[in-house]
Queue: 2 jobs
Job 1
Amino acid sequence: MNAWLAAGLLAGTAAAGEPVVVRSGPGRTALLELFTSEGCSSCPDADAWLGALEGKPGLWRAFVPVGFHVIYWDRLGWPDPWGAKSYTERQRRHADRWGSWRVYTPGFVTDGAEGRPGALPAAPGPKTGTLEARARGRLVVVAYAPEPGTPRAARAFAATLGMGLKSRVRSGENA
Protein backbone atom coordinates (compact mmCIF):
# COMPACT_ATOMS: atom_id res chain seq x y z
CA MET A 1 0.00 0.00 0.00
CA ASN A 2 1.22 3.52 -0.74
CA ALA A 3 0.39 6.31 1.69
CA TRP A 4 0.76 10.01 0.97
CA LEU A 5 0.92 12.84 3.43
CA ALA A 6 1.10 16.44 2.31
CA ALA A 7 3.51 18.11 4.62
CA GLY A 8 3.78 21.59 3.19
CA LEU A 9 4.31 22.89 6.71
CA LEU A 10 7.59 21.03 6.88
CA ALA A 11 9.37 23.43 4.53
CA GLY A 12 10.73 26.50 6.21
CA THR A 13 9.39 25.91 9.71
CA ALA A 14 11.34 22.77 10.57
CA ALA A 15 14.62 24.68 10.63
CA ALA A 16 13.47 26.81 13.57
CA GLY A 17 14.57 24.19 16.12
CA GLU A 18 11.36 22.61 17.35
CA PRO A 19 10.20 19.60 15.35
CA VAL A 20 7.25 20.12 13.06
CA VAL A 21 4.68 17.33 13.18
CA VAL A 22 2.06 16.77 10.48
CA ARG A 23 -0.55 13.98 10.66
CA SER A 24 -2.89 12.75 8.01
CA GLY A 25 -6.45 11.76 8.62
CA PRO A 26 -7.33 8.07 8.40
CA GLY A 27 -8.68 8.29 4.81
CA ARG A 28 -6.61 7.58 1.73
CA THR A 29 -5.31 10.65 -0.14
CA ALA A 30 -5.23 10.56 -3.96
CA LEU A 31 -1.98 11.44 -5.71
CA LEU A 32 -2.48 13.59 -8.82
CA GLU A 33 0.60 13.55 -11.04
CA LEU A 34 1.24 15.79 -14.04
CA PHE A 35 4.10 14.89 -16.36
CA THR A 36 5.06 18.08 -18.14
CA SER A 37 7.91 19.94 -19.80
CA GLU A 38 8.78 23.49 -20.77
CA GLY A 39 9.45 22.13 -24.26
CA CYS A 40 5.87 20.86 -24.68
CA SER A 41 3.59 23.28 -26.54
CA SER A 42 0.41 21.86 -24.99
CA CYS A 43 1.74 21.83 -21.41
CA PRO A 44 1.16 25.45 -20.30
CA ASP A 45 -2.60 24.84 -19.95
CA ALA A 46 -1.97 21.65 -17.95
CA ASP A 47 0.57 23.46 -15.76
CA ALA A 48 -1.98 26.24 -15.17
CA TRP A 49 -4.63 23.66 -14.21
CA LEU A 50 -2.26 22.09 -11.67
CA GLY A 51 -1.30 25.49 -10.27
CA ALA A 52 -4.95 26.49 -9.92
CA LEU A 53 -5.48 23.65 -7.42
CA GLU A 54 -3.95 25.80 -4.67
CA GLY A 55 -6.75 26.62 -2.26
CA LYS A 56 -9.22 24.09 -3.72
CA PRO A 57 -11.37 22.12 -1.25
CA GLY A 58 -9.76 18.79 -0.46
CA LEU A 59 -6.20 19.94 -1.21
CA TRP A 60 -3.71 18.01 0.97
CA ARG A 61 -6.46 15.89 2.60
CA ALA A 62 -8.31 14.38 -0.38
CA PHE A 63 -5.61 14.89 -3.03
CA VAL A 64 -1.99 15.93 -3.41
CA PRO A 65 -0.94 17.48 -6.75
CA VAL A 66 2.63 16.92 -7.98
CA GLY A 67 4.24 18.09 -11.21
CA PHE A 68 7.10 16.08 -12.70
CA HIS A 69 9.10 17.73 -15.50
CA VAL A 70 10.39 15.09 -17.91
CA ILE A 71 13.55 15.41 -20.00
CA TYR A 72 12.71 13.70 -23.28
CA TRP A 73 12.03 17.08 -24.93
CA ASP A 74 15.55 18.23 -23.98
CA ARG A 75 16.98 16.36 -26.99
CA LEU A 76 15.32 18.92 -29.26
CA GLY A 77 17.40 21.69 -27.68
CA TRP A 78 14.70 22.76 -25.23
CA PRO A 79 16.24 21.92 -21.85
CA ASP A 80 13.83 22.11 -18.95
CA PRO A 81 15.50 23.47 -15.79
CA TRP A 82 12.93 21.60 -13.65
CA GLY A 83 13.41 18.32 -15.56
CA ALA A 84 14.97 15.18 -14.13
CA LYS A 85 15.77 11.74 -15.50
CA SER A 86 14.07 10.16 -12.48
CA TYR A 87 10.77 11.89 -13.42
CA THR A 88 10.98 10.54 -16.95
CA GLU A 89 11.71 7.07 -15.55
CA ARG A 90 8.72 7.39 -13.20
CA GLN A 91 6.43 8.14 -16.13
CA ARG A 92 7.85 5.19 -18.09
CA ARG A 93 7.23 2.86 -15.11
CA HIS A 94 3.59 3.99 -15.06
CA ALA A 95 3.29 3.27 -18.80
CA ASP A 96 4.92 -0.14 -18.33
CA ARG A 97 2.31 -1.04 -15.68
CA TRP A 98 -0.44 -0.06 -18.14
CA GLY A 99 1.17 -2.20 -20.86
CA SER A 100 2.01 0.82 -22.99
CA TRP A 101 5.28 1.83 -24.62
CA ARG A 102 4.02 5.41 -25.04
CA VAL A 103 4.77 8.38 -22.78
CA TYR A 104 3.66 11.92 -23.60
CA THR A 105 3.18 15.39 -22.23
CA PRO A 106 1.06 16.57 -20.72
CA GLY A 107 0.44 13.24 -19.03
CA PHE A 108 -1.94 12.88 -16.09
CA VAL A 109 -1.86 10.04 -13.57
CA THR A 110 -4.27 9.66 -10.66
CA ASP A 111 -3.26 7.08 -8.08
CA GLY A 112 -1.25 5.21 -10.70
CA ALA A 113 -3.99 5.18 -13.36
CA GLU A 114 -3.71 7.08 -16.62
CA GLY A 115 -6.14 9.96 -16.68
CA ARG A 116 -7.06 13.49 -17.63
CA PRO A 117 -7.67 16.62 -15.58
CA GLY A 118 -11.18 16.73 -14.27
CA ALA A 119 -13.21 16.22 -11.15
CA LEU A 120 -11.17 16.31 -7.97
CA PRO A 121 -11.78 14.11 -4.98
CA ALA A 122 -13.68 16.22 -2.44
CA ALA A 123 -13.01 13.92 0.48
CA PRO A 124 -10.40 11.36 1.43
CA GLY A 125 -10.92 7.80 0.26
CA PRO A 126 -11.47 4.71 2.38
CA LYS A 127 -9.82 4.52 5.76
CA THR A 128 -6.37 2.99 5.43
CA GLY A 129 -4.48 4.43 8.38
CA THR A 130 -2.73 7.48 9.71
CA LEU A 131 0.59 8.74 8.48
CA GLU A 132 2.72 11.05 10.60
CA ALA A 133 5.76 13.04 9.48
CA ARG A 134 8.02 14.60 12.10
CA ALA A 135 10.64 16.99 10.74
CA ARG A 136 13.57 18.80 12.26
CA GLY A 137 15.71 20.60 9.72
CA ARG A 138 16.22 18.26 6.77
CA LEU A 139 15.54 15.09 8.78
CA VAL A 140 12.02 13.70 8.34
CA VAL A 141 10.83 10.64 10.25
CA VAL A 142 7.65 8.96 9.02
CA ALA A 143 5.40 6.59 10.98
CA TYR A 144 2.34 4.71 9.72
CA ALA A 145 -0.48 3.28 11.86
CA PRO A 146 -2.76 1.14 9.68
CA GLU A 147 -6.49 0.88 10.24
CA PRO A 148 -7.64 -2.54 11.51
CA GLY A 149 -7.77 -4.98 8.60
CA THR A 150 -5.40 -2.89 6.46
CA PRO A 151 -2.12 -4.54 5.46
CA ARG A 152 0.72 -3.27 7.63
CA ALA A 153 3.21 -3.16 4.76
CA ALA A 154 3.49 0.37 3.41
CA ARG A 155 5.88 2.60 1.51
CA ALA A 156 6.34 6.27 2.29
CA PHE A 157 7.36 8.80 -0.33
CA ALA A 158 8.52 12.37 0.13
CA ALA A 159 8.52 15.17 -2.40
CA THR A 160 9.56 18.79 -2.29
CA LEU A 161 6.51 20.81 -3.26
CA GLY A 162 6.41 24.41 -4.39
CA MET A 163 3.61 26.67 -5.54
CA GLY A 164 3.94 29.66 -7.85
CA LEU A 165 7.35 28.71 -9.24
CA LYS A 166 8.19 30.48 -12.49
CA SER A 167 10.99 30.39 -15.01
CA ARG A 168 11.72 32.12 -18.29
CA VAL A 169 11.44 29.69 -21.21
CA ARG A 170 14.28 30.62 -23.56
CA SER A 171 13.84 28.18 -26.45
CA GLY A 172 11.37 25.88 -28.14
CA GLU A 173 7.71 26.36 -28.93
CA ASN A 174 7.00 28.06 -25.60
CA ALA A 175 9.81 30.67 -25.75
Job 2
Amino acid sequence: MTIQEKIIQKLDSDLYPDLNADMILKLTNESERGAVLIGTSKIEEYLEKFVLQILPQTSKSYTKRLTNYPGPLSSFSSKIELLYGFRYIGNKFYASLNKLRKIRNLAAHSYDDFNLAENATIISEMNEFEDDISYLVGELSLNNLLKFKKLKLERIYQEKGFKINHDYIEKTLSDFKTSDDGLKQHLIWQLSYGIVLMCLYVLVLMEENNYLEDRELTHPIK
Protein backbone atom coordinates (compact mmCIF):
# COMPACT_ATOMS: atom_id res chain seq x y z
CA MET A 1 0.00 0.00 0.00
CA THR A 2 1.35 3.42 -0.96
CA ILE A 3 1.68 6.35 1.43
CA GLN A 4 -1.22 8.06 -0.33
CA GLU A 5 -3.42 4.98 0.06
CA LYS A 6 -2.54 4.73 3.75
CA ILE A 7 -3.46 8.38 4.27
CA ILE A 8 -6.79 8.04 2.45
CA GLN A 9 -7.57 4.86 4.37
CA LYS A 10 -7.13 6.79 7.61
CA LEU A 11 -9.17 9.71 6.29
CA ASP A 12 -12.06 7.34 5.61
CA SER A 13 -11.67 5.54 8.95
CA ASP A 14 -13.76 6.16 12.07
CA LEU A 15 -10.64 5.73 14.19
CA TYR A 16 -9.63 9.38 13.86
CA PRO A 17 -12.77 11.48 14.48
CA ASP A 18 -10.75 14.69 14.78
CA LEU A 19 -9.22 14.16 11.31
CA ASN A 20 -12.20 13.69 9.03
CA ALA A 21 -14.75 15.69 7.04
CA ASP A 22 -16.08 17.31 10.22
CA MET A 23 -12.64 18.74 11.00
CA ILE A 24 -12.32 20.06 7.45
CA LEU A 25 -15.76 21.71 7.65
CA LYS A 26 -14.79 23.23 10.98
CA LEU A 27 -11.64 24.77 9.49
CA THR A 28 -13.38 26.00 6.35
CA ASN A 29 -16.02 27.76 8.46
CA GLU A 30 -13.37 29.68 10.35
CA SER A 31 -11.88 32.98 9.26
CA GLU A 32 -8.77 32.58 7.13
CA ARG A 33 -6.61 33.58 10.10
CA GLY A 34 -8.54 31.24 12.40
CA ALA A 35 -8.22 28.30 10.00
CA VAL A 36 -4.44 28.72 9.89
CA LEU A 37 -4.03 29.04 13.67
CA ILE A 38 -6.40 26.19 14.58
CA GLY A 39 -5.04 23.95 11.82
CA THR A 40 -1.45 24.55 12.86
CA SER A 41 -2.27 23.73 16.48
CA LYS A 42 -3.72 20.42 15.25
CA ILE A 43 -0.60 19.41 13.31
CA GLU A 44 1.55 20.47 16.27
CA GLU A 45 -0.57 18.20 18.48
CA TYR A 46 0.22 15.25 16.21
CA LEU A 47 3.90 16.09 16.01
CA GLU A 48 3.94 16.04 19.80
CA LYS A 49 2.39 12.55 19.74
CA PHE A 50 5.29 11.48 17.52
CA VAL A 51 7.83 13.14 19.83
CA LEU A 52 6.31 11.37 22.85
CA GLN A 53 6.68 8.05 21.02
CA ILE A 54 10.40 8.76 20.65
CA LEU A 55 11.12 9.86 24.21
CA PRO A 56 12.67 7.20 26.45
CA GLN A 57 10.26 7.89 29.33
CA THR A 58 6.50 8.45 29.46
CA SER A 59 6.17 9.86 32.98
CA LYS A 60 4.24 13.15 33.05
CA SER A 61 6.94 14.93 35.01
CA TYR A 62 9.50 14.06 32.34
CA THR A 63 7.38 14.78 29.26
CA LYS A 64 5.95 18.02 30.69
CA ARG A 65 9.44 19.30 31.45
CA LEU A 66 10.29 18.92 27.77
CA THR A 67 7.04 19.80 25.99
CA ASN A 68 5.49 22.46 28.23
CA TYR A 69 6.72 26.05 27.93
CA PRO A 70 9.59 26.93 28.34
CA GLY A 71 10.78 23.37 27.74
CA PRO A 72 13.14 22.65 24.82
CA LEU A 73 10.37 20.87 22.87
CA SER A 74 7.54 23.28 23.67
CA SER A 75 7.47 25.12 20.33
CA PHE A 76 6.21 24.07 16.93
CA SER A 77 9.64 24.64 15.39
CA SER A 78 11.49 22.61 18.04
CA LYS A 79 9.27 19.57 17.42
CA ILE A 80 9.89 19.89 13.68
CA GLU A 81 13.65 20.19 14.17
CA LEU A 82 13.84 17.20 16.53
CA LEU A 83 11.96 14.90 14.15
CA TYR A 84 13.97 16.10 11.17
CA GLY A 85 17.30 16.13 12.99
CA PHE A 86 16.92 12.44 13.87
CA ARG A 87 15.55 11.60 10.41
CA TYR A 88 12.05 10.58 11.40
CA ILE A 89 10.68 12.99 8.81
CA GLY A 90 12.19 13.57 5.38
CA ASN A 91 13.23 16.67 3.49
CA LYS A 92 9.88 17.20 1.76
CA PHE A 93 7.79 17.00 4.91
CA TYR A 94 10.29 19.15 6.77
CA ALA A 95 9.97 21.81 4.07
CA SER A 96 6.16 21.55 4.11
CA LEU A 97 5.96 21.96 7.88
CA ASN A 98 8.14 25.05 7.68
CA LYS A 99 5.92 26.47 4.92
CA LEU A 100 2.95 26.03 7.25
CA ARG A 101 4.93 27.56 10.10
CA LYS A 102 5.64 30.58 7.89
CA ILE A 103 1.92 31.02 7.15
CA ARG A 104 1.13 30.56 10.86
CA ASN A 105 3.60 33.28 11.82
CA LEU A 106 2.13 35.65 9.25
CA ALA A 107 -1.39 34.96 10.53
CA ALA A 108 -0.40 35.30 14.19
CA HIS A 109 1.74 38.42 13.95
CA SER A 110 0.17 40.45 11.15
CA TYR A 111 -1.61 43.60 12.29
CA ASP A 112 -3.26 43.97 8.90
CA ASP A 113 -6.05 41.80 7.54
CA PHE A 114 -4.63 38.34 6.88
CA ASN A 115 -5.27 37.11 3.34
CA LEU A 116 -4.75 33.52 2.20
CA ALA A 117 -4.71 34.61 -1.45
CA GLU A 118 -1.44 36.43 -0.80
CA ASN A 119 0.02 33.12 0.40
CA ALA A 120 -1.45 30.83 -2.28
CA THR A 121 2.00 29.78 -3.51
CA ILE A 122 3.12 28.85 0.00
CA ILE A 123 -0.04 26.78 0.52
CA SER A 124 0.60 24.94 -2.74
CA GLU A 125 4.21 24.25 -1.71
CA MET A 126 3.02 23.15 1.75
CA ASN A 127 1.00 20.38 0.11
CA GLU A 128 3.96 18.80 -1.66
CA PHE A 129 5.14 16.63 1.22
CA GLU A 130 4.61 13.36 -0.70
CA ASP A 131 4.40 12.45 -4.38
CA ASP A 132 1.01 13.38 -5.87
CA ILE A 133 -0.31 14.63 -2.52
CA SER A 134 -0.65 18.17 -3.87
CA TYR A 135 -2.80 16.84 -6.73
CA LEU A 136 -4.83 14.75 -4.29
CA VAL A 137 -5.43 17.75 -2.02
CA GLY A 138 -6.53 19.83 -5.02
CA GLU A 139 -8.97 17.19 -6.22
CA LEU A 140 -10.42 16.35 -2.81
CA SER A 141 -10.80 19.96 -1.79
CA LEU A 142 -12.49 21.09 -5.02
CA ASN A 143 -14.78 18.05 -5.33
CA ASN A 144 -15.97 18.29 -1.74
CA LEU A 145 -16.33 22.08 -1.83
CA LEU A 146 -18.60 21.72 -4.88
CA LYS A 147 -20.49 18.86 -3.25
CA PHE A 148 -21.02 20.97 -0.13
CA LYS A 149 -22.12 23.95 -2.26
CA LYS A 150 -24.53 21.73 -4.22
CA LEU A 151 -26.14 20.40 -1.05
CA LYS A 152 -26.68 23.95 0.19
CA LEU A 153 -28.35 24.96 -3.09
CA GLU A 154 -30.58 21.86 -3.07
CA ARG A 155 -31.54 22.59 0.54
CA ILE A 156 -32.69 26.08 -0.44
CA TYR A 157 -35.03 24.60 -3.06
CA GLN A 158 -36.37 22.06 -0.56
CA GLU A 159 -36.94 24.63 2.17
CA LYS A 160 -38.96 26.77 -0.24
CA GLY A 161 -40.88 23.76 -1.47
CA PHE A 162 -39.67 24.16 -5.07
CA LYS A 163 -38.70 21.42 -7.50
CA ILE A 164 -34.89 21.25 -7.70
CA ASN A 165 -33.57 22.75 -10.93
CA HIS A 166 -30.51 20.58 -11.52
CA ASP A 167 -29.48 22.39 -14.70
CA TYR A 168 -29.45 25.73 -12.89
CA ILE A 169 -27.45 24.26 -9.99
CA GLU A 170 -24.85 22.79 -12.34
CA LYS A 171 -24.52 26.13 -14.15
CA THR A 172 -24.18 27.92 -10.80
CA LEU A 173 -21.46 25.52 -9.68
CA SER A 174 -19.59 25.87 -12.97
CA ASP A 175 -19.60 29.67 -12.63
CA PHE A 176 -18.68 29.42 -8.93
CA LYS A 177 -15.49 27.45 -9.64
CA THR A 178 -13.89 30.30 -11.55
CA SER A 179 -15.39 33.21 -9.60
CA ASP A 180 -13.35 35.24 -7.11
CA ASP A 181 -15.44 33.84 -4.26
CA GLY A 182 -15.02 30.29 -5.53
CA LEU A 183 -11.25 30.60 -5.83
CA LYS A 184 -11.08 32.14 -2.35
CA GLN A 185 -13.15 29.34 -0.81
CA HIS A 186 -11.18 26.67 -2.67
CA LEU A 187 -7.98 28.04 -1.15
CA ILE A 188 -9.18 27.63 2.42
CA TRP A 189 -10.41 24.13 1.55
CA GLN A 190 -6.96 23.30 0.14
CA LEU A 191 -5.36 24.58 3.33
CA SER A 192 -7.77 22.54 5.47
CA TYR A 193 -7.35 19.31 3.52
CA GLY A 194 -3.59 19.81 3.44
CA ILE A 195 -3.40 20.17 7.21
CA VAL A 196 -5.61 17.13 7.85
CA LEU A 197 -3.59 14.99 5.44
CA MET A 198 -0.38 16.18 7.11
CA CYS A 199 -1.73 14.98 10.46
CA LEU A 200 -2.67 11.62 8.94
CA TYR A 201 0.80 11.41 7.39
CA VAL A 202 2.31 11.81 10.87
CA LEU A 203 0.19 8.84 12.00
CA VAL A 204 1.55 6.80 9.08
CA LEU A 205 5.11 7.70 10.07
CA MET A 206 4.40 6.78 13.68
CA GLU A 207 3.16 3.35 12.59
CA GLU A 208 6.28 2.84 10.49
CA ASN A 209 8.37 3.62 13.59
CA ASN A 210 6.21 1.75 16.10
CA TYR A 211 9.26 -0.11 17.40
CA LEU A 212 10.00 3.09 19.35
CA GLU A 213 7.20 2.17 21.74
CA ASP A 214 9.48 -0.49 23.20
CA ARG A 215 11.52 1.81 25.41
CA GLU A 216 13.70 -0.96 26.83
CA LEU A 217 15.38 -1.43 23.46
CA THR A 218 17.69 0.87 21.56
CA HIS A 219 17.25 0.83 17.80
CA PRO A 220 19.34 2.40 15.08
CA ILE A 221 17.74 5.11 13.02
CA LYS A 222 16.64 3.77 9.66
